[in-house]
Design brief:
Chain lengths: 167, 657
């Protein structure tokens, strides 16, 4: 945690330096209570863990998916289909490896149950209202709602299989 | 003689004025308890649905409005013949072709008579058709999407008023001309109208599966005014009836000159016979210019095709196909009862309603008892075809609809009332005032074989004091009546939009089931659609710049655009990537000379922007789409025409990890 904070400080320091007009030289710029640039010891309490970093491998979420058996082997055919669906329906808001509008799915199954992931895809409206983690995530991501893209259960399952391959 | 008629009319007017006074004082005397009972009948609790859809024409708004009954709540305005900035209809590149005609792009229309498609004489809720009166056109609206998907121009027609009425299996949607004109159009003295002008009655075929329209044939009739029309039902299926006025063939001061003849006609057309004649090669193709505009729901784009000829039929070439039924005093409404036996012709200058019998008409035709002819078309004897008349029912009868119990309901414009009468006995059962000067009335399914009853609503031409005043211009009012009992009961006044000329209504369940929620992205075949970031790009072709853009809650991709120059024509092709019900996104850019776009989930729409000023201009989403709607914005940089700023686009380069 401490190292993350250090890294962040360095990152934002560089960002601040690099900020300002590129075409038009050196405009004054300011920042007011910007999330992570305020005094970190007081602004971010050490015990506060972001929802996206929380680990909960019990909660299955709210929605149609009650039980998923992932199996030991990764189903390659399913991955190919899942990759396609993800690209078409999800990339407007999600990048595989970095935070974008929404969180990155890489390593998601180390933090969430497969059921939770599929319910979040298939039933986002209810999830952000009723599931405690989903509710927190909505706030962490600035209130940007997870869109219901109308995936079928089969498509959502394929996307999940694709997520298994993201390391 | 004239004087005595005037006296009779004046007495009648006074009498009827007195009767309707009584009625209105009765309804005003209603106690509080009764009134609350009435309120319950139109109350649809929050979140509940209405039992019926009503599709009310917008008249000179050129559109069609959708209401719920019994609440009288308006749900939607469907743009048909007029540009509609709310959605970008007629402004977006995809929909501009819908308003193309042989007279060029026309941004406005006058929509009159909606009619729902039918199967076996029952309304089936697949399509609704509506006519444009001014520059003759017929439109088809798909009731799956509530979008206008086809418009066909009607050549040789002028004042497309006896339209758009469908036959029992939607074989045809029929469009008759109100104004007769020279056919083909030519430069000639107006005074030579008589005997030279003609009236075209067009039979537009509707393909059973797709609903695609095509003008199968036009019957070129004598130069009368063809006012309203109705198809036969049941036994009379295969016939079509048109009311006519101006059988005097006057071209000037019609209010006097077209009211000379004691009787005008209802034209009875055996379209099955003419169809057979045409199928055997009858009629002739004549040169004509008319536009046929079709919207493709996969490319989300309309195309306009100019047609060059149309098949015309001279009625005297098809013996036994066309007859005239004498009908008193400039008949307006022409309505056929659910059984198909009775044809009601409302002579608008008459106090009586004339009802013709289809059976008697066939018998008269068989026995060839004619009362002369008009331009070679046999005139049947009035007495031979008359089934009966409703005596002294009111003043200025216009239109009639029916319930399933053998009752008819006729509007009276001059005496401002609806009169309920019995088919067969012709007795008046009830009358109720309307506020004021009623035109058409509608009963759900009331012009089909199976009226669905329960409610009737009257659409009034004059509003005056019915609502809070809004300056000199008032929206027209409609009035909803309960017709489930012997007597009609006024339940509700509700305002309409434009001119509520006529309406079609039906039970909600069929349409509700089929109503589409989104456009499937998989089916989007728009040539400029972008489905993911890989597709997002900007392509320059000379001074045309095509931006392949996507939207999803709550950003545009790209949202920073540079390299546009003055003199460029910028096409924003915006695809809405949402696949969730009721999540449209809007698009507007500062200085846009057209209108915004409202893009439904899965749809692609295009707006053209020709920037006139150098600067950095914002664009944003106009539809409040999410909690971060206010953040849904972007910038486009416009440089001088000689600048060398490279074309560049991005989204979220500064997102912090």
């Amino acid at each position: 945690m401490k190292t993350t904070l250090k890294l962040m400080t360095i990152f934002f320091a560089t960002l601040l330096i690099s900020c300002g007009g590129k075409d038009e030289k050196k405009k004054e710029t300011f920042s007011y209570e910007k999330k992570t640039t305020t005094d970190q010891t007081t602004a971010i309490k050490p015990e506060k863990i972001l929802a996206s970093n929380k680990v909960d491998l019990v909660n299955k979420g709210v929605g149609p998916i009650k039980n998923i058996d992932l199996g030991n082997e990764i189903d390659r055919k399913l991955v190919t289909h899942g990759t396609e669906v993800f690209k078409k329906m999800c990339t407007a808001c999600h990048r595989p490896n970095k935070k974008f509008i929404g969180p990155a799915p890489t390593g998601i199954l180390e933090r969430r149950t497969p059921e939770w992931v599929m319910n979040m895809i298939l039933n986002p409206e209810q999830m952000v209202k009723e599931d405690p983690l989903a509710k927190e995530l909505l706030m962490e991501f600035n209130g940007s709602p997870m869109a219901n893209q109308g995936l079928t259960e089969e498509d959502a399952r394929a996307v999940l299989e694709y997520f298994r391959t993201l390391k | 003689m004239k004087n005595s008629i005037q006296i009779v009319f004046a007495t009648l007017a006074i009498l009827i004025g007195l009767t309707s006074c009584n009625n209105s004082s009765k309804s005003n005397n209603k106690s509080g308890a009764l009134a609350s009972n009435v309120a319950e009948k139109v109350y649809v609790a929050p979140g509940e649905h209405d039992e019926f859809y009503a599709f009310i024409s917008g008249g000179y708004s050129g559109n069609l409005t959708v209401y719920g009954l019994p609440s009288g709540r308006m749900f939607k305005e469907i743009p048909v013949f007029s540009q509609f900035p709310t959605s970008g209809y007629g402004y977006s590149e995809e929909t501009k072709p819908m308003l193309n005609t042989s007279h060029g792009f026309i941004p406005w229309g006058d929509s009159h008579h909606p009619d729902i498609s039918q199967t076996n004489g029952e309304i089936d809720g697949r399509f609704i058709f509506i006519n444009e009166n001014n520059t003759p056109r017929i439109a088809k609206i798909d009731l799956k999407t509530f979008e206008t998907t086809e418009i066909i121009e009607v050549p040789n027609s002028a004042g497309n008023h006896s339209s758009s009425f469908v036959t029992e299996n939607t074989e045809y949607v029929v469009a008759g001309t109100r104004f007769s004109v020279p056919i083909p159009q030519r430069d000639m003295p107006i005074i030579e109208y008589k005997g030279n002008f003609q009236g075209a009655l067009s039979f537009i075929s509707v393909a059973p599966e797709t609903g695609a329209m095509d003008i199968k044939f036009q019957v070129l009739m004598p130069g009368f005014n063809y006012d309203l029309a109705h198809p036969g039902r049941g036994a009379s299926h295969g016939w079509f009836f048109f009311s006519t006025y101006n059988s005097e063939e006057a071209s000037t001061l019609l209010e006097v000159n077209a009211s000379q003849n004691d009787k005008d006609f209802i034209a009875a057309i055996n379209w099955k016979k003419i169809e057979e004649y045409v199928n055997n090669g009858g009629g002739k193709m004549m040169p004509a210019d008319y536009a046929h505009n079709v919207y493709d729901e996969h490319t989300h784009t309309a195309t306009s095709t100019m047609k060059k000829q149309v098949r015309v039929v001279n009625p005297t070439d098809v013996p036994g196909a066309v007859f005239f039924l004498p009908t008193p005093k400039s008949p307006h409404g022409c309505d056929v009862d659910p059984s198909g036996e009775y044809i009601v012709g409302n002579g608008k200058l008459s106090a009586n309603l004339t009802v013709h019998s289809f059976t008697k008409m066939l018998a008269a035709i068989d026995s060839k008892k004619f009362d002369g002819e008009a331009y070679g078309i046999p005139i049947l004897k009035f007495e031979d075809v008359l089934a009966g008349s409703v005596e002294q029912a009111g003043l200025g009868p216009l239109h009639t609809e029916f319930d399933s119990e053998g009752n008819a309901y006729t509007t009276f414009f001059i005496s401002s009332e609806v009169v309920k009468w019995k088919l067969g006995t012709w007795e008046v059962i009830d009358r109720k005032p309307t506020y004021y000067s009623v035109g058409h009335l509608t009963i759900p399914g009331g012009n089909s074989r199976k009226p669905q009853g329960k409610y009737m609503f009257a659409m009034n031409k004059i509003t005056k004091d019915r609502y809070l005043p809004t300056g000199p211009e008032l929206e027209h009012s409609a009035q909803l009546y309960d017709i489930s009992g012997d007597k009609m009961e006024l339940l509700l006044d509700f305002p309409t939009h434009g001119e509520p000329h006529y309406a079609a209504a039906m039970r909600a369940d069929i349409i509700k089931e089929r109503s589409q929620k989104i456009y499937n992205l998989e089916d989007n075949k728009h040539p400029y659609a972008a489905f993911s970031d890989d597709d997002v790009k900007i392509v320059r072709k000379g001074n045309e710049v095509h931006i392949y853009m996507t939207t999803i809650r709550s950003h545009f991709s790209p949202d920073n655009i540079e390299g546009i120059k003055l003199g460029d024509k910028v096409y924003f092709h915006v695809t809405n990537l949402e696949q969730d019900f009721d999540v449209p996104h809007g698009f507007a850019v500062l200085g846009q000379n057209t209108s915004e776009l409202l893009i439904m989930p899965g749809q692609t729409k295009t707006s053209v922007w020709e920037p006139t000023k150098v600067g950095v201009w914002p664009f944003y989403c106009t539809d409040f789409c999410s909690a971060l709607h206010q953040e849904m914005q972007g910038y486009i940089r416009v440089s001088p025409s000689n600048s060398d700023v490279p074309l560049k686009w991005s989204l979220g380069e500064e997102i912090e990890e």
